[in-house]
Write a structure and sequence with these properties.
Length: 327
Amino acid sequence: MTKFPEARLRRLREFPALRNILQETRLSASDLVYPLFVTHGRKKRIEINSMPGVLQFSLDNLEVEIAEIKELGIGAVLLFGLPESKDTVGSASYKKQGIVQEAIRHIKDISPELLVITDVCLCGYTDHGHCGLLRDDKVHNDSTLEVLQTIAVSHAEAGADIVAPSAMMDGQVFAIRSALDTYDFSGVAIMSYSAKYSSAFYGPFRDAADSAPKFGDRFGYQIDPSNVRQALQEVVFDIKESADIVMVKPALPYLDMIVRIRQSSNVPVAAYNVSGEYSMVKAAEGNGWIDYTRVVLEIITAIKRAGADIIISYHSKDVARSLSINC
Ligand SMILES: [Zn+2]
């Protein structure tokens, strides 16, 4: 083995062309998914206080946003809906004319080639803000599965390419796969929020999607941040239940889980760089404390380097923009 002074690792870091050709992880706009919040009503473009730069759009204002996403080379959106009304069973989540169902049809009209992924959950649609149906003030697993099936089929009917169950109910992937196949949507894929941690980093999202639980918390169904093996079990179960893609959420504080899941399975791994991760960086940018673009590129590169094939991020447009400038 050669050693110093003949061997010098700095030799390969001397100048840009050398560094570029040796770059091990390369970001591309096609790695990215942009989350979109669609809201009822007209002429709405509402900025979310805790997430500067992220907006809720009414359908009539979606076209410009979709055009920008496409122009930047981002190939996929993840849809979240804000319905006009909520009830205890979240019935607005599976209506044919529901906000997400309408948004899917509208996006597919504007841009048929854009990949449309939909979040399948109840928390944005129930008046209590929990991810499932309640029995004795507890989220009831098996009755929730039936609603998740109905939501997923309604999204598929509207034209969704991928449905993404995020409720963390046991058996949700199997239930949704069976329902999709029964209704002749065997071509619609499932991206499961498999390793979804019970994280404080979701705070700003709950403003964006108006989905904070009105009582209690989500520790009863999401994974304790200190646990590794439980998340690996969730992934194994979801793959057995036919998940096409598995997800780790949040991303940056859970890079170790992205690595482990990448190494232990062969399905594509998605990572969700969540609202709190975004808002902290935006706040630091707003205070002039960091170089925003460099920090964001470093974060997203780290998520890809850990092994994520798909990166869902509120920074996606900024990342794609800076990649196009650097080309
Ligand atoms: Zn939920």
